[in-house]
Each structure stands twice: as C-alpha cells, then as structure tokens.
C-alpha cells in the first residue's frame, strides 16, 4: 500500500514539473537562443498582412532581447526588453 501511494506521488510530481516547465517556456521566462528566433517570429508574424517587415523587426528584437512574446499580438509585458524598445518617433519597434 505504501509503495503504491509513493509511486502515485512520484508520477503526480513529475506531471506537475513537466507542466510548469512548459508554462515557463511559453511565457518567455527562459532565454531563447538566436537559432530559436526564426520559428518564434514566424508564429508571431503569422496573423499579419505585413509579414516581411514583421519578420525583419521581430528577428532583430529577438536577437537583441532573446525573447519573443507568446501569441500573434500583444503580451509584450512578458518580454521587458522587447516591450520597451522604441523607434525614433517613440512607437514600438518590436511587433
């Protein structure tokens, strides 16, 4: 009985660990490698009609910040560097 309870505890603990590690990656807390930028930016720019400039600026921001916000729009608060980088005119540089 004790062995079954212990093994159930181990299985549940592992499932929670995997779940929380996936959530942390999805929300950008883990630093990306430069090679991870293109696939993340492809998804980030997938909903826009201006794919070429979106990809250019997203990859530039990702290379500098090593972070791309989740989703196709918004969520920039997850990546502070990505969120605060502005153009000369004061608009957001990163899509």
Describe, in short, the structure shown:
This is Protein RSI-1. The protein has 95 residues and is an all-alpha fold.
Radius of gyration, whole Å: 18 Å
Q: Please describe the biggest sheet, giving its number of strands, its sense, and whether it closes into a barrel.
A: none
* Category by helix and strand content: mainly alpha
Q: What are the secondary-structure elements, in order, as H or E?
A: HHHH
Percent of residues in beta strands: under 5%
The dominant shape is elongated
Average pLDDT confidence is: 82
Top keywords for this entry?
95 residues, mainly alpha, 2 domains, 0% strand
Structure, described:
The chain contains 4 helices and no strands. It is mainly α and 95 residues long. The radius of gyration is 18 Å and the shape is elongated. It has helices spanning 2-26, 37-44, 51-65, 80-84. The protein has 2 domains: 1-30; 31-95, no CATH class. Helix 2 (37-44) crosses helix 3 (51-65).
Question: Helices, strands, pairings?
Answer:
Elements: H1 2-26, H2 37-44, H3 51-65, H4 80-84
Helix pairs in contact: 2-3
Protein name: Protein RSI-1
InterPro entries: GASA
Pfam family, one: GASA
